[in-house]
Amino acid sequence: MRFDLTDLRLFLHVVEAESITQGADRTGMALPSASARIRGMEEMSGVSLLDRGARGVRVTPAGEALAHHARIVLGQMEQMRGDLQLYARGLRGQVRIFSGRAAMAHLPGALRQYLVDHPTIDIDLEERQSPDVVAAVAAGQADIGIAADTTDTGTLETRPFEIDRLVVITPASHALAARNMVTFAELLDEPFVGLPAESALQGHLAIHAAREGRPFKLRIRLDSFEDICAMVSSGVGLAIVPEVYARRYQADLSFKTVAISDVWARRHLLICARSFAGLPVHARAVVDYLTMAKGRG
Length: 297
Fold this sequence. Notes:
This protein is α/β, with parallel strands linked by helices. It has 12 helices and 12 strands. The strands form 3 sheets. Strands 3, 4, 5, 6, 7, 10, 11 and 12 form an 8-stranded mixed sheet that branches. Strand 8, helix 9 and strand 9 (218-221) form a beta-alpha-beta unit. Helix 1 (5-17) packs across helix 4. The relative contact order is 0.14.
């Protein structure tokens, strides 16, 4: 049974996209060629790797096993290429990072100088919900991830990145605007502007509201912190947001920022990987740089 690296890359793209068409496109391959390669892999292995349906494909148990080994093989190849970069001038490397929304506010500033200093390294940065970040890193779909410590990182190795402080923002005329600090319980009678229900932060807040035995009153859900801050500035309600976003938009909008005294309002953002020692050399370098950059952004 002999699969080449193109076969393995194609198969992983198909599994991730749940579509042979999209998998072929991501691999830069014509659909007939991709379909023929997948059929050839199934013929060589003697088992069905994909269940095909009208809405796409689903990986079979045998396909899951192949995908697992494909990620290992391709990861080792990427590590080899990264290690050879130490000796081959001009060889480009790429680091794939999945990040939760809170960390995305810190990453551009943290990575800017690294990219300037390392012109042969490219970074593929993608925003995901923290649980999806952890799942993607565990599955080998990303070299490293950055997630809040409110998410279970399972068997992944972690290192500290930044501290994410949650604050409440209020309209400038609101009674709470004169306060320096409030408890979460004091806020629960107020109307709120929030994030979509599936967001990690909104789920985090809903859990703590439930622990207080009171509902979290949401007037509207928005996907952008800038839009949330604008709604608060207009007097629609309060919002709980990462402090870094409140600072970013406060200069242009009329709202006040008040600290939340509850311990859980101080979240730790973690860099995570299946194994830091097993990362390609350029990915290890990015982790080291982000760890040293902790607190600078």
